[in-house]
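Action item from last week, closing it out:
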Amino acid sequence: MSRAQYLFTSESVSEGHPDKVCDQISDAVVDLYLAADPFARVACETMATTNRVILAGEVRGGGVTHEQLIETARKAVKDIGYEQSGFDWRNCEIECLVHEQSADIAVGVDAAGNKDEGAGDQGIMFGYACSETEDYMPAPIYYAHRILHEISKDRHAGVLKEFGPDAKSQVTLLYQNGRPVKATSVVLSTQHIEDVSQERIREIVRSYVERVLPQGWLPPEDEFYVNPTGRFVVGGPDGDAGLTGRKIIVDTYGGAAPHGGGAFSGKDPTKVDRSAAYAARYLAKNVVAAGLAERCCLQLSYAIGVSKPLSIYCDLYNTGRVAEDKLERALSEVMDLSPRGIRERLQLNRPIYRRTAAYGHFGRKPDNDGGFSWEKLDLVEPIKAALS
């Protein structure tokens, strides 16, 4: 039985957070390769620390040079906005250790003869959607992302000169009878220039929280925490080392749903860690949009080198208007869930990934160039038809 009342919290981080700097560099590398060769293979990991970035991983195809990789990483740091003494796009040292893909991995993944393209690794992937927000996302992560994203847009536009790139948010919502009704606390820490008062920072942050949260949802004053340590001048990789793939809950559903075994950033779409998680979200979102449930969670599982998913599991959390086993069969009919089928359906072999690496891979608007294609609602009628 579900609880009548409870609190739930999710956090987000800005594009200047050290781990997110690394995610964006890794995905900028993926875009670089896919722009050169739509069928390139990429697994890129990034580490960042004080005035230093290290690229590692394995690739195949594309003809990209180490010099291009270094320039791509430097441009990503510039676009984020780092020009501070301990981390500056103009003079940070960038080391490239990227090498050719292992032949043992390639032989398992590549299509050959009667063998279809296999999954790039074994693993389990989850997708989730709910009716709490207009974008079918859990409300705590939805608002945590939006607060930071609004601040970021104004910082990049030059409107907000007091703040630096690094920031974190956290939103706690009160749920009553399964629906969010108000915020009970908001936490936001943001990097700032030296000569701005904490009172001014609090005033600025409040304006963005008021802009994003529904009317009447602001928490009490003593539960509104802005820069709780009192000072946040040194930020980004100069303040704390960053690594690709350390913010997987920020990337997905804020802890409101399970996450599979792998991160997304730095991986081309043959890696089901990424593509199958996108497919699962795509299906779950269309299920909820079709009015078949208030909440939907899907699990897909794969084996390396095997094209078909080993299993598909659906949980509607007792909100469904259709039997879950029947829905599982219908979903496998409306979409080819092989790695090739997912890539072709969602047109994933395009340079569309760097934009996903901050403020969440889900709950975003589909772009005209195919970015966030997994957020489309074009399976609503096919799913209904498969169930009828």
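Closing note: DSSP finds ten helices and 13 strands in the chain.
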